[in-house]
Each structure stands twice: as C-alpha cells, then as structure tokens.
Amino acid sequence: MRAPLLAALAAATLTITACGGSGAGEGKVRLRMIESLTSPDRTKLIKSLIADFEQANPKVEVELISPPLDSADQKITQILQTKKNLDVLEVRDLTAKSFVNNGWLSELPTKDWAGWNGLTELARKKAVEVGGKPYLVPYGFYQRTLFYRTDVGMSAAPKTWQELYEAGKRMSTGGKFGYSFRGGKGGADYAILMISAYNGDTVNPEKSFFLKDKRTIFSTPEAAQALDLFVKIFKEASPPDSVSWGYPEMVQGFTSGITGMLIQDPEVIKTVEESGLKNWSTAPLPKGPTGYAYQPVGYAGWGVTSFTEHKAEAVKLVEFLSDARQSIRFAKDNSLMPISQQAQSDPQFSGGAWKAYLEAQQDPKQVITIRPTDYPGFSQFQVDSDRDTQALITGKKTAAEVLKSWDAFWTDQAKKVS
Questions:
Q1: Does the structure show a pLDDT above 50 at 14?
Q2: In terms of CATH, what superfamily is 25-142+298-339?
Q3: With 90 as the cut, is the pLDDT of residue 355 above it?
Q4: Entry pTM
Q5: Any residues with CB less than 8 A from the CB of 7 and at least 6 apart, and which?
C-alpha cells in the first residue's frame, strides 16, 4: 500500500502547487512571463526590473522563462497553443500578426493607463499596428542609421547613396575599404532600402513594397538604377569577403578599422563605444535622388495572453515595464530607441550618437514604412531575396533578372490579399 499512497500524495502536491500559481506564496499571485530575444545581460536586466515590480507589488510574484534565443519563438508558440500557464509574453513585429490572428493576445486597457499619453507617437502607432487594437506595448525600436569614422578623411557624412558610393570608393585603398557591405543573410534588406529611396515619393509607406499606384517598387527604372549602384558599392567600395558578411562581420569590420562606414541598428552604439573607437559619428540614413529615405522600424514589446487567469496583475506588470522610468532604463541598457517622450530630454538620447535618430524623426523625408508581413509569401521572400542578392553581387544574375522576379512575386502576392 506504500507505493499507491506515495503516488497519491505526490499527485495531491502537484494539484495544490498548480492551484497556487506555480508555487506562489500564500495569498500571492504568481505570474509567468516569457522573453524571446534572450541574452544573458538582457535576462539579468529584466529580472532586475521584475524585482522592482515585486517590491512595489508585494502580493505578486513573477517567474521569468528565458528560452534559448534560436528556439524562443517556437517555444512561445508551443506554450500559446496549449492556452495555459502563461500570463505575459514578449511579442515581436514578426510574431504579432500570428499571435493576434490565433486569438492568443488580450487587448490592453490603454484608456485606463495614465502612461499611454506619455508614449511617443511611434510607440502608440506600433502598439495598434496589428489588428487596430493595442495588443502590445513596444519597449523600444530598431531603426537604422549611418555610422562613419571621422579618422579616415570624412569630415561630414554622405547625404545620399550616390555620395556614400563615392566616399566609399575614395576610402578603398591600401587594404582599407569604405563600407561594411552585408552580402550574407539579411543583405536583401539593404537593396530594398536603396530601391525604396530611389522610387521617392511614389512609394506607399503603408505597403512598403508597393507604389501609390499599386505597382511594385521593383517595377520601375529607378529600381534598376538603385540596384546597379548597390552592386557598384559592393564591387568598388567594400571588402571582397563581405560577400558573405552578416551582422557580426559588418560591425567588426567597422570597429576594427577595415571599413569606414556602416549602416546598422542603434544596438551597435554600445558595441562601438565598448570597442574603444574614438573618432566616429552617426547620421540619418542616406537618401535617394529625390531626397527621400525609407525604412521599416523593427520593434518588439510586452503583451498579455488572452487566457491569463490574472489579467489585472499581468496588465499591471506590462504598464510597469512600459512607464517612463523603467522603459528608459531598458532602452539605455539595450541601445534601443526609447518609447517615452521623456527620453527626448535625456542626455543619452538627445546628443552624441543618438542625435541622428532624433534628426531622422524630425525629417518628413525620412519615412517610416510598414513591412508587408501580413502577405502570405513574406517569409519565403526573405529567403529567396537573400539568395537572389548573393547571385546578383557574384554575377550569377543581372539586376534586370532579379527585379523581374521580385516584381512578379509581389504582383502575385497583391492578388492573394486583394
């Protein structure tokens, strides 16, 4: 009888633990929270913010789940499919649509939150970008800017892609090169930045791969001009081995002195500062011939599951993480564009390397676009376009062939969502 008795006791213990909110103390609510873009330093920071929340809310305990980065989104999706034991989660721009469509996110009561009006216009816009309702509060933004070294004869940043090419070509001598080209995964994003800029004010920012007349951005003579210059920048102003460079190699090329210019997200600011490099600065993204620059803004944020049993406490945690003090701290430590209006008067964000981001926000011709992530073929295009970009810069495909393929693909996509 001893074995059945022990089994029954164990089962009872598990039941009590589950009913008590995964081991929460007596009279306490236990929230389970999961992050996606996991890293040791970031997890440590989030735990510190959670500790502050728990101190301010002694009747709530928060368990943070930190899956490995490469499988985090898959892990989050698996938990969401079970619809249990999760209250707060990290929602990315690439996962928001799926999470909303599957009914896994709860609409946040932003009208009852005093901090809502303290968010930047961009933060409020992105909060309701998917589904037209606030299913998340962004915690910061990734927006590209131009990094350039002032110790290689650059007294001012190039203002256009043509000027970037010319400056990069001048710097490419004696084993040094002008530009950290991205030829590996993600390289097509840079080709699309240029194509968009060259199409100028004909681009539809709300559907960034299309023009206002509903043709694709890949269908124009300006797109061909942009792609021709893209190849010239690689061949005449970039290291030959950048044919396969991704994010780490691009940044290393810049900080080590191999290249004089780099276009990347603000997280690079911290990396460059820690490298000890002294003579460098930033500038808004280069523009096309008609004076326009276009780029999407990457983002992620905190949301509440639709099946949480502790919605009030979960919402309170999201609001706490999103208030001015906590969100500015999070943005500083992660080198993100902040979501709080108060950050504009913070010395870290109003000067130095961050000044270029404020300049871009104040320039109506530095336009923020929306990626066509809601089109069924978007994920496949990311893979195919990187492959095509590799073929383009290695001479296996012409610019005309690549543009014809991309135009046909997105023309077909438009038919599928019309």
A1: no
A2: Periplasmic binding protein-like II (3.40.190.10)
A3: no
A4: 0.82
A5: none
Contact 260, 178 (CB under 8 A): yes
Looking up tokens 């080590």 gives: 256
Q: What is the mean pLDDT of residues 128-138?
A: 94
Q: Which CATH number fits domain 145-296+361-417: 3.10.310.10, 3.10.290.10, 3.10.20.880, 3.40.190.10?
A: 3.40.190.10
Instruction: Tell me the Ramachandran region of residue 304: left when phi exceeds 0, alpha when psi lies from -120 to 50, beta otherwise.
Output: beta
> What value does the CA radius of gyration of the chain take, rounded to a whole number of Å?
24
Quickly tell me which residue has 């599957």 as its tokens: 102
Count CB-CB contacts under 10 A for residue 21. Answer: 20
Domain locations along the chain:
25-142+298-339, 145-296+361-417
Structure confidence at residue 417 as a pLDDT band (50, 70, 90): confident
Question: Counting every residue, how long is the chain?
Answer: 418
Using CA atoms, how far apart are residues 80 and 33, in angstroms rounded to an integer?
12
Q: What residues contact residue 246 under an 8 Å CB cut-off, 6+ apart?
A: 182, 184, 185, 186
For residues 35 and 68, the answer to whether their CB atoms sit within 8 Å is no
Tokens describing residue 4: 């059945």
Residue 291 structure tokens: 């004076």
**Residue of 268, 230, 277 whose CA lies nearest to 247:** 268
* CATH fold match for the domains 25-142+298-339 and 145-296+361-417: yes
- Whole-angstrom CA distances from 99 to 67, 93, 276, 324 are 18, 10, 41, 26
Backbone dihedral region of 35: left (phi > 0), alpha (psi from -120 to 50 degrees) or beta? beta
Contacts of 285 (CB under 8 A, 6+ apart): 144, 145, 146, 193, 197, 263, 293, 295, 360, 366
